[in-house]
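Form 12-C: Joint structure prediction
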Amino acid sequence: MPGKPAIRAEKIKELLRKTFGEPADGPDLSRMDERILCDASTSMRQAVAANQRIHPISKWRKIMRTKTVKLATAAAVIVAALVLTTFDRFSGTVWSVEQTIAAIKELNTLHIEGKVYWGPDSDSELVDFDFWVQFPGEDSEELKMRYECDKRIIIVEGKTAYVFRPKEKSVNIVDGSDISELQIWYKGAEFSPWLTGKMLWVLRQFSDDWKEEVQYDPDTGKKQIHVTCSYPSDTSYSIVVDDESKLIETARMWLKGQPCVDAYAFTYNQENPSDAFKVQVPADYTIDGEEGIEESRALYNRAGQLFVEKKFTEALKLYQQGYEQYGSLNNGRVGRDMLYMVGMCYPEIGQFDKMLDTFLKHISEFSHLEGSDDAYYCLGLAYEELGQNQKALEAFEKSILIYEGQYEPDNQYPLKNARKHLEKIKALLDSGP
Amino acid sequence: MIEDRLLIRRFNAGDMDALRRIYEKYKPDLLSVARALVNDASAIEDVLHDVFVRFASQAGSFRLKGSLKGYLAICVANRARNTNRQSSQNSHKKSVESKSRLPELPGPSEVAECTERRRVVTCALAQLPQEQRQVVALHVLGSLRFREIARQTGDSS
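Section 2 - Result
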């Protein structure tokens, strides 16, 4: 009975993972963890203490060097400026956090359209983006956001963020509170002064060139307030505010003189698209970070260990448990692998009828997923063992039909094996009863 | 990884939980890489220890280029190489004999599974040139892409 994965390179990889991934002869982990973390913590404390001698403003400049933080800052400035223009009216009156809280509470939704330079500085490309926000309110207690460009789609529901990568066909489900870009919005949702007061305070304190200027839109003649500022010196902002509504109309940001973000349209309090915050993971996407994934992997590994030790009955129980408990995770891939291994356990304990049932079920449930294509080959093996040669022949033929063209060279598992079995069965059938 | 960037930010701010999270997040992969690259099994813990203590000593000023996992995995690989070199120098007298021998195997009381497989795979891996062994370990066990390995090690071959 062939093992899985069968392709040679994959087999080698699997073998390496099994061999070195297991803590069989490794150090005592809990003791090791304690020792490493204790020494590392001491080292960290000393390093941080030494580093604290740096002036706080220098630290701020250092933080502001990263593009991520600059982008997040831009978002913060946009909202901060929005609040400022709504309540301050550029009159120089004292601004308070309470005013900001009241201002944000007024907003239900926000939609920003724009362009962003994506990628490393030297090789960035301009991509369109859309950004929808639904603030917590009467309809929903949760902050909802959707950021979309052709490189990423990020949907946030409360504290959970789904990061889709269309090119890689993968989605990462993460604790949104751990995503730096989203922090600013979470803080905003919590009416944190970091989003409003502190950020604004930092800009107004440290920006040497904060300017507010009244201008008139050349097309509409509407009165606008143009705000420009920069901080640090290589990061500049330009924000246009409608004088009547006191809301932002456009916002732009430059890094080292190069355009970075151009948010050219702001729409407020309009109904967001009904599916803007709907999370739907396409079937061909892989999912990382899903709840239960780690547990399912641990279970799969435990069962695999039992399988290697030839404790097939015990392994079977765990694989079955994994299939029932975690089968739907990662778009069914966990179920696919668990059930496959259930099917591989049965022949080891002589239960070919159950092997047959299992692979029939596997085909019925998982044939749409990649990596499940040798199920037909296993089905053929089960039929063959049960003496149902005609059905075995059909299964092997089907498997060859599926595999041909998929494997290069085509003389490897499962194509090679399926052909061999097919020939054997044809010879048997030709020789008659 | 966005999560890593935040972790690094917290780490640089002296957040012990961030250090612990980084350790717990990457320990399994780093251990696998160390197991595959360190000839002396008893030195695995020291390799991981040294890498994390050195990493922690950069708190407050650590700048991440590329992925955190890639950075730590390369640190483990480099440290493993140094450890092997050191261990080889220490046992110079026995080198002729030990070069042809398999790395030390764990005793039967310590390990209940896969002794034969481990012996064969370890032996096969040990026969690879150090650079190739490192790439195999980083790619398969550290899950790093070849491009990232090349970038981190500066070796594109």
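Section 3 - Comments
The two ends of chain A are 26 Å apart (CA to CA). Chain A touches chain B through 46 residues (CB under 8 Å).
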